[in-house]
Structures are given as C-alpha cells and as structure tokens.
Amino acid sequence: MPEIIEITDFHAQELDVYARLTENQLFRFREPGSGLFIAESPRVIERALEAGYLPVSFLLERKHIEGEAKGIVARCEGIPVYTADSEVLARITGFKLTRGALCAMERPVLPDLRKVCEGARRIAVLENVMNPANVGSIFRNAAALNIDAVLLTPACSDPLYRRAVRVSMGTVFQIPWTFFGREHPGQSPADIEVLKELGFVTAAMALDPDALSVTDPRLKTAEKLAVVLGNEGEGLAEDTIAACDYKVSIPMNHGVDSLNVAAASAIAFWELGQPVHQL
Fold it and tell me: In the predicted model, what is the mean pLDDT of residues 86-93?
C-alpha cells in the first residue's frame, strides 16, 4: 500500500524539495552523494520510472491518487505520497501544478562520454546552451528525430532542471546523455577532438557563406555524425567551428539569418538523422 500523507503543515521539512529549494540546492542536496531533481506530470514521472530513475517522494493532488497517477503510486510501494487539494498545493509551491503531480527523484551518476556514444550513429553536441527550455526542446527533437545521444558542455543548462524535464516531456530520460568534463566549468568549448577519436564526422551549425547546406549528401551518408549546436546568442565558439569537419547552415528566405537553437535542431535532426536506406 502507498504511504499517503495528508499535508497539514506548510513548513514541513519533507516539502522543502518541492517548495523552497533552488535547482542548485537540489543538485547538492545529498553531497557528497547524488542530488535530487523534480519530475512534473504523470506522463513525465512514468517515463522516468521506466528509465530506472528512483523516486524519493511524491506531491500529488488528492484526486490523482486514484486518477492519473494511480499506476505510478501503485508501482512505488513504500514511497511517501504527500497530498492535498490543488488550492493547498498551490499555496505550498507558489504555482498551480502541471497535471497535479510532482516527484522528487535521485540524480543518477552520469555515464562516461565514450559509453554514451557507444553504438551511436547520430549524436547532438550542445555548446553553452543555457536556456533550460531550449535544452528540453532539443532533447524532445532528438528523441523524435533519430538522434542517439546528446553531449553537453559544462555551461549548458542541466537537462534535469525542472523546466528542461517538463519541456522535454520526459525524453531526457529516454536519450543517453552526459556532460563533457565538468572539471572546467563555465564557457567551455565542445571537445571536438574526442568526437573525432570516436569516429564521428563533425558538423558545426554556423552562419557562414561557405557552409554546406544541411541537405548536402556528404552529411547524410556519413557513417557517424555529430551535429554541433551553439549558444542562443553567440552561436558556436570560433575554435569549435574551425575544429569541425564541416560548417553547416539551414537555407532561409526573407533576410532571416538564424533560427532559435531548438528550431534549428529540429530541422538538422530531421535532415541528418534519417537512416541512409531511407534517403
């Protein structure tokens, strides 16, 4: 049976993770062990559980215990379920819950970069993409459009931040990912040489008059391809572009010179992620 706990004290310590801790505090919640993150909505929580992520507690609207979250609660026997009506939960969290369900989960130990890339044919590389909504959208695009893994530089927004998880619709739990070495935080460039050592042809998405079109057959037929996407404001570092095998751009009209990085990723993944036999 689930452990259902009616909320009577807004200041209960067990609710801090949902109402009072920042993303950074959640990240460091159990130092030196793993931290926590928050998954939001029954569908997203279910995807996390299916991927093997471990729940710590739930915060649910009362109606969802026997409603949309019934199956989730049933499979997590012994995990505390804090509950109240939606108005009470909104007072605790400061906002109306999306689909009435939150789950605090343990952060996993991130895998080695080479392990993430093992067997991958197409990967996405994010360099200093700082908006969590963009990171979440890119993961959703990657999952839908045949990208096998995602690598991020240390300055990127964490894929397990609540907004990134929510925008991704839980696909951050379905696509293998990791960071390049976090021992060098800040505006670190992508390690293109490591990708080349792993056998990837590298394609920098960049605004350059000499860039190949994203439809160029040399890109589509590459056995292993890394699509490298840059920061929302400045794009890729010049050194990163210079280190890549190709510069690639999306042909555009009406004087538009660039797209949001998430939109650009969808086009690039669609063009470059299709199996060769379908081209």
Answer: 73
